[in-house]
Give the backbone structure.
Amino acid sequence: MRKYPFGQIDRTVLDTLGPPSRAYWLVIGLLGLGVLIGAASWAYQIAVGIGAGGQNIPVAWGTYLINFVFWVGIAHSGTLISAILHLFRAGWRNPIARAAETMTVFAVCIAGLFPFIHLGRVWMVHYILPYPNQRTLWPNFQSPLVFDVIAVSTYLIVSTLFWYTGMLPDLATVRDRATGLRKKIFTLLSLGWTGRHEQWRHYARGYLFFAALATPLVISVHSVVSWDFALGIVPGWHSTLFAPYFVAGAIHSGLAMVLTLMIPLRRIFHFETFIDRDVLENIAKTIILTGLIVGYAYMIEYFLAWYSHNAVEQEAFRWRATGPYRIEFLIMVVCNSLIPLLFFVRPVRRSVPWLFGISILINIGMWFERFVIIVGGVAHGFLPNAWGLYAPSAIELGIFLGSFSLFFFLFLLFVKHLPSMSMTELKESVGEGVGHAG
Amino acid sequence: MPDKRHVIGLFSDGDRALSAIRALKGTAWPLESVYSPIPHHGIMEAVGPQKSRVGYFTLAGGILGFLSGIGLAVFTATRWDLIVGGKPVVALIPFLIVGFEFTILFAVLGNITGFLIQARLPDIGGLKRHCPACTGDRFGVVATCREGEEEKVVVFLKEQGAESSLLQ
């Protein structure tokens, strides 16, 4: 493996914190406009009521819940890359770990907004918190919705602390090369980190425990999200398959989003030296694995419906593939489990345009997977007189646009204000003169 | 050593810094501390093989979290003894999920608390004697000596491969 001087690693990352170009501000402005559209849409819904969205009986769970599951899913690969691959000592994850962790933090924040949006009367949200009301009645801790509040809140706190702790040495590096107000800000942020051996000793231990705790957490969070559905006796939802199916799907979509973010990032900030094609290829190989698991889950769902001899379950799955949402079903199957198979071809998984294009298609496919599962479940339940269709309203589309804009808006702010690659981890893996570091 | 002075030798290479640390052990100038831009196992072992106690905080947090999660779920469920969804009032399997999430949350909070206490952070005041090169590309080895011996220590560290030595 080629080695680089520590100074070059620092310069490459610190150069990204220089004054931004006009194009940056233009993109920030456009994304800010998208955020405003989303905020205005939500404000309108608060003013006129939840009926401004297209959700109605029987489809009471529409794009708000689809977006919630989608963003929680996106958040998962950040922890896969930063925690699970750290435990496996996969050195290739070092250049992308920071950006992936950041993606996790922002994606969980955005996911966390959607239950509030879906609630309609958002000012009543305190009812979900564990405190007694005036009749000393508490939230029901047997409900998967309460599991979800606990799991997603825990995930947000843990991923934010993991992200911040991992960044401490880099914040100190920026502090020691900054002047003026930036130096003061980074002095506070870096908590007085000096790189003293005692600090490293406790840091290394603490970081290892962080990774060890984040690993089961990440698996539990999307399992809990899947139980929001699987614990309901709705045809197409009530399956023990859901937890592993959702976890694999979450990592699949998250890895695709990592590619979508990393490919422009490495080009704009000249990170090609560190985020090279081998790194991108390794992500693509992992996507093959998760794509195969997701494809297997799609097949097993049909097998279970057939094997169960349950007419309602069989009808739900027949309708899913041949009913009014067959196009969405087709997008799901093709984008998530067939197109990723192209990564078996080495030139494809080493071609940046192919990687970028396929990552976008997987993102689209995974959003539609949640559409097919969530809407498809409640639209075609047990009773034919309760069947119905759903289409998102303009308000929902505005909020959808707002959520994507907010995600990219926050990510762009991050890459210009904080080190977007971990200098410390890069020095450990590809630095010259490291000796016995690790 | 009432009139003690500190001299820091800056090395571009972790292994050279490690050699200097080992060589210092044979002198009358004790090692005060080592600063590095990355964690270096060799240096940490040479400086002192004692283990970090962060794990005890993590464990304590985890145990407290598990008990808190289960305790909260059982306590709230038994306020009215309402049977919901045909499950027992104290339903162990759902409550284990609550216990699990609280375990992770409190273990992580214990972990970060343990790290901050053990590493003595925040410590903005400690930056007064900090060498900025040590968060970039240099390994700093700090030796303690009596007043008047600084020059000898500087020469010694340079002999060990230090690129520069400074009085701290």
